[in-house]
Design a protein that fits this description.
Largest sheet: none
Structural class: mainly alpha
Number of domains: 2
Number of strands: 0
Distance between the termini: 29 Å
Shape: elongated
Helix content: 40-55%
Number of helices: 10
Strand content: under 5%
Low-confidence stretches: 211-222
């Protein structure tokens, strides 16, 4: 609309903010960092809108010319952050949105689908395994990210926590799996803090990363994660 166009004109007349360097994309392993870094740059330059907005019908109008300029800048910045090998693959695409979609089709496989059997985010979340010797809080953060990406509901998240986090198992069972993410974090941080205090009291100063498993168990250990999904 007019307000958005006015804001963009004001933005374009202002000094350009410094741009953070972006490591060239070489393949799938660097895709997530590349995607987020490129989006930050495109939003900083105020040209990211062309990735979702259609080209104006009248290309010779002021709005059409402004869109074409933003699209050329957006496309150029995307291509400039590709490796020489990938540049040859994606340069034939004529618009920024076409380049962006083409790269995503190649590397963005973490796309949620209606059938969880074919959902990579869902499989990553339910196959999460607790790693002995790694900080509990870091592992809970990893699981929370996987669950959010897979759109798992809180009950499913609690079932995974019960199966994989020894120190949180009984807290989840006692609350009958009605534990939100914030409460899980409260419990995990409290246990982490208590373990570290005890560690220091015993004359050791490096923080512990493992804890003894709860001695209690439950007959419902074989419960499976319900397939539908999460989290507004």
């Amino acid at each position: 609309g007019k307000e958005a166009n006015t804001a963009r004109r004001v933005s374009m007349s202002s000094p350009a903010p410094p741009l953070l360097p972006i490591a060239p994309l070489h393949g799938e392993s660097g895709y997530l960092r590349w995607r987020e870094s490129v989006l930050l740059r495109l939003h900083t330059l105020d040209v990211a809108h062309v990735l979702t907005e259609e080209r104006p019908d009248d290309e010779r109008s002021a709005a059409g010319k402004q869109w074409a300029r933003a699209d050329a800048m957006c496309r150029g910045h995307i291509l400039a952050t590709l490796s020489d090998r990938l540049l040859q693959v994606y340069a034939p695409h004529a618009t920024a949105a076409a380049v962006w979609r083409a790269v995503a089709r190649t590397y963005d496989l973490d796309i949620a689908v209606d059938d969880p059997t074919y959902s990579l985010p869902y499989e990553k979340a339910v196959k999460f395994r607790y790693a002995e010797g790694e900080p509990v809080t870091e592992q809970l953060a990893l699981l929370e990210g996987l669950a959010t990406n897979a759109e798992l509901n809180d009950t499913c998240l609690c079932l995974i926590v019960k199966d994989q986090f020894p120190t949180l198992r009984m807290a989840v069972i006692k609350r009958k799996y009605r534990v939100g993410v914030d409460k899980l974090w409260e419990i995990a941080r409290r246990k982490e803090l208590a373990a570290r205090v005890e560690y220091v009291r015993n004359g050791r100063y490096a923080p512990p990363t493992t804890y003894a498993q709860d001695s209690s168990s439950s007959s419902d250990d074989d419960e499976r994660c319900p397939i539908r999904r999460r989290r507004t």
